[in-house]
Amino acid sequence: MIALIDYDAGNIRSVEKALQFLGHETVTTRDKELLLSAEKVILPGVGSFGDCMEKLHSFGLIPVIGEIVNKGTPFFGICLGLQLLFESSEEAPGVPGLGLLPGKIRRIPAAEGLKIPHMGWNSLHLMNNGRLFQDIPEQSYVYFVHSFYLEAADLSIVKATAEYGVTIHASVEKDNIFGCQFHPEKSGELGLQILQNFAGKEGGAC
């Protein structure tokens, strides 16, 4: 069973539908026991960093996420869910993130010819042998919607980058923690393959 963490953030239903299309049993919940018993856990999210961290606090989910990660359950943050994995965001100064991985979330700088938010299809440069990108070709296009981007402190965890005025750390992996800034559930067949690469994995680190 794959559990999606329900904390009243956007895009949870679209991720759930994509996983069900792939044939996976899913549950969307904030129940601690269900989350801890799941084989895999996904933290989706669309919204603001500060509001979503407040919701995770209010629902008592932060210590549960810590338990999930510490016990080695594969854990996947998507879009804002990726950003929440890190230490802080310029979107919400003074609000700490989950701090599961080292790095900061920066605002995409304004530049001539670039629209903010970054919304649309961008190609990925793959690196460091990401497990999510097995059978995914270099320069594959995926779908982004965001105004802030990850600047990871440890480049060895970065598995894909994209260029949009700056170099966006678009996907990360470390042990049993995975993250994508883009939306695999909205990225066509390649996005479904990325979800399948996560959902089909057994155990934590390879």
> Could you say which overall geometry the principal axes of the C-alpha atoms support?
globular
- pLDDT < 50 runs, ≥5 residues: 202-206
- CATH architecture classification name: 3-Layer(aba) Sandwich
- What is the CATH class designation? Alpha Beta
Query: Could you tell me how far the N terminus lies from the C terminus, measured between alpha carbons in angstroms?
Result: 20 Å
CATH superfamily: Class I glutamine amidotransferase (GATase) domain
| Structural class computed from helices and strand pairing | alpha/beta
Elements, N to C (H/E)? EHEHEHHEHEEEEEEEEEH
Mean pLDDT: 94
From the alpha carbons, calculate the radius of gyration and give it in angstroms: 16 Å
Number of helices: 6
Trace the largest sheet across and list its strands.
Answer: 2-1-3-4-13-12-11-8
Proportion of beta-strand residues: 25-35%
* Percentage of residues in helical conformation: 25-40%
Question: What can be said about the biggest beta sheet?
Answer: 8 strands, mixed
CATH fold descriptor: Rossmann fold
What is the domain total for the residues? 1
- What's the number of extended β-strand segments? 13
